[in-house]
Amino acid sequence: MARVKPKRHNIRVDMTAMTDVSFLLLTFFILTAQFAKPDVETITTPSSISQKLLPDASLMTILSTTDGKFYFTPVENGTERIALLDKMGQKYGMTFTDKEKVNFSNAQSIGVPMSQLKGFLDLPDAERKAYKSPTGIPMDSTKKELIDWVQQSLAVNPDYKLAIKGDVETKYPRVKSLFEGLRDIDYLKFWLITSQETAQ
Q1: What is the CA radius of gyration of the chain?
Q2: What pLDDT, on the 0 to 100 scale, is given for residue 64?
Q3: pTM to 2 decimals?
Q4: Domain count for the chain
Q5: Do the beta carbons of residue 73 and residue 129 sit within 8 Å?
Q6: pLDDT (0 to 100) of residue 87
Q7: For residue 142, how many C-alpha atoms fall within 13 Å in the half-sphere facing its CB?
Q8: Distance separating alpha carbons of residues 86 and 152, to the nearest angstrom
Q9: Strand 59-64 and strand 161-166: pairing?
Q10: Ranges under pLDDT 50 in the chain
Q11: Domain of 182?
């Protein structure tokens, strides 16, 4: 006598909950991601084997280009950026309009001497973002404006950290003058940004 086979049921998995969670995670990561802003000028960093990561917050950056120009990038906090601009204005006897303060808080990097800063801040947004300084911020034995930017930033918030991103082709005397300037204000701990050395 033939056996009766039990009826097979198709197993159906409801993926609605999984899809909801996936989209929630995707939305979360998109909204919380911080995209790195491109540098004002192309900089090829030296390689190293260090795997230490830079801190995410309270980081100011100095860029050193191939031809020895210096750019300064203040921390991302808009309110503290405006406080920094006010302090630099007091030091150099300058005042800034509300519009210039807003433009400064949105600026990517500063690469001009203080005497040209107001003109730089008055540029339209697109021109200011694409602006490549012919001189950079002065940093030599007679004019140490770059060090003033660092010092006044630390006056706004002593917990700021400093990272230096130099091009592999930057001449040593330029970097040496920067290190000596930082030593003069007793600021001896900072990060050097490098690229990861690849295995040969």
Answers
A1: 25
A2: 86
A3: 0.75
A4: 1
A5: no
A6: 92
A7: 0
A8: 10
A9: parallel
A10: none
A11: 65-196
